């Protein structure tokens, strides 16, 4: 019997609607969680059980998420991919470290309490700068770059998670983390990498779960936010998003050209991953010194995800137009399979 179409079934294309929003699979569930928490704050206590657990379960979901993400990273990446991805990784994290040192001296661990920059913190800045939107990067490289530039993200995946943010905050001279906590923050990713490289079937099996879990931990994160304070992220969130695209995009452009590229891949990496919105909560759970900064930082980073999802493609298209696309882009074979999309 022929399959009925979505229209015949009366289906509502919820997924497509969500994906029309930049970073939608992260941003929309996060906002839904925030709305429920703001208007119906007793919901998790009233329903309890699995419903209550979902409202407070961001960290366990993220632990599983990082195992699956790690499984998508291939140890056997080609030399070009290691050089390209490694360079972009070092430059992106290096910029976050420099800014972390500067703002760490000025702000310390606490957020700014009042005024135009209320809610801004070193934690928000570092978390927004550290992590690249992988799905966006790969989509842009598929359009403007070479196939092997897409594979470079297998190395850049190491940005994922709170580990490098912890390192950056430590380098900035702020409250340090015990070595056990730092190892624990990267252990799920390492376990996933081991499983994925020992068994290709495990890589495929775990990798498919990466995009599925994003809306669930995003919702759980959103339930810890108070929408009455989100207005503060308006211009400040916009400004932080512009800063990420500009302050990381320019150095990444030159780094890409130094490794034989046109600069397009570097600019395409000048975004913030949706997963980065989860980092402030993880950092605060590991070190209470960042507890006050976590909630406003989550809002600011979430806003940055949306802003960079709009600005980075525009900047990448402009770069490709003015600096040219690689002549061999269409004919060059892919050197590594791209990792699963990350919001």
TrEMBL record:
Entry keyword set: Cell membrane, Membrane, Plasmid, Sugar transport, Symport, Transmembrane, Transmembrane helix, Transport
One GO cellular component term noted in the UniProt record for this chain: plasma membrane
Transmembrane regions listed in the UniProt entry: 21-40, 46-68, 89-106, 112-129, 150-171, 177-198, 205-224, 230-254, 266-287, 293-315
Membrane topology category: Multi-pass membrane protein
GO molecular function term, any single one: 2-keto-3-deoxygluconate:proton symporter activity
Compartments where located: Cell membrane
Catalytic activity reported: 2-dehydro-3-deoxy-D-gluconate(in) + H(+)(in) = 2-dehydro-3-deoxy-D-gluconate(out) + H(+)(out)
Signal peptide stretch: none
Function: Catalyzes the proton-dependent uptake of 2-keto-3-deoxygluconate (KDG) into the cell.
Family: Belongs to the KdgT transporter family.
Protein name, as recorded: 2-keto-3-deoxygluconate permease
Organism of derivation: Methylobacterium aquaticum
């Amino acid at each position: 019997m022929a399959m009925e179409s979505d229209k015949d079934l009366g289906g509502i294309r919820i997924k497509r609607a969500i994906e029309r929003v930049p970073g939608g699979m992260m941003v929309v569930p996060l906002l839904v969680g925030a709305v429920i928490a703001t208007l119906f704050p007793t919901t998790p206590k009233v329903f309890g059980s699995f419903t209550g657990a979902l409202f407070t379960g961001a960290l366990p979901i993220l632990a599983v998420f990082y195992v699956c993400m790690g499984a998508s990273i291939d140890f056997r990446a080609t030399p070009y991919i290691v050089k390209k991805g490694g360079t972009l990784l070092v430059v992106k994290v290096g910029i976050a470290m420099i800014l972390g040192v500067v703002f760490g001296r000025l702000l310390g661990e606490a957020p700014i309490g009042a005024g135009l920059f209320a809610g801004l913190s070193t934690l928000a800045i570092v978390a927004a700068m550290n992590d690249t939107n992988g799905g966006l990067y790969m989509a842009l490289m598929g359009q403007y770059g070479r196939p092997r530039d897409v594979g470079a993200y297998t190395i850049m995946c190491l940005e994922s998670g709170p580990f490098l943010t912890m390192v950056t905050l430590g380098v900035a001279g702020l409250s340090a983390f015990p070595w056990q906590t730092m190892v624990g923050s990267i252990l799920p990713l390492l376990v996933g990498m081991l499983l994925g490289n020992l068994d290709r079937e495990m890589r495929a099996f775990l990798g498919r779960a990466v995009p599925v879990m994003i809306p669930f931990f995003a919702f759980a994160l959103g339930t810890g936010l108070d929408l009455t304070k989100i207005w503060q992220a308006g211009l400040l969130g916009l400004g932080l998003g512009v800063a990420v695209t500009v302050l990381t995009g320019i150095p990444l452009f030159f780094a890409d050209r130094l490794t034989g590229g046109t600069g397009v891949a570097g600019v395409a990496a000048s975004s913030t991953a949706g997963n980065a919105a989860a980092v402030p909560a993880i950092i605060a759970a590991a070190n209470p010194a960042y507890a006050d900064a976590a909630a406003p930082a989550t809002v600011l980073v979430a806003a940055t995800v949306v802003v960079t999802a709009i600005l980075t493609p525009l900047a990448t298209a402009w770069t490709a137009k003015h600096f040219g696309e690689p002549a061999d882009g269409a004919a060059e074979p892919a050197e590594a399979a791209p990792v699963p999309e990350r919001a």
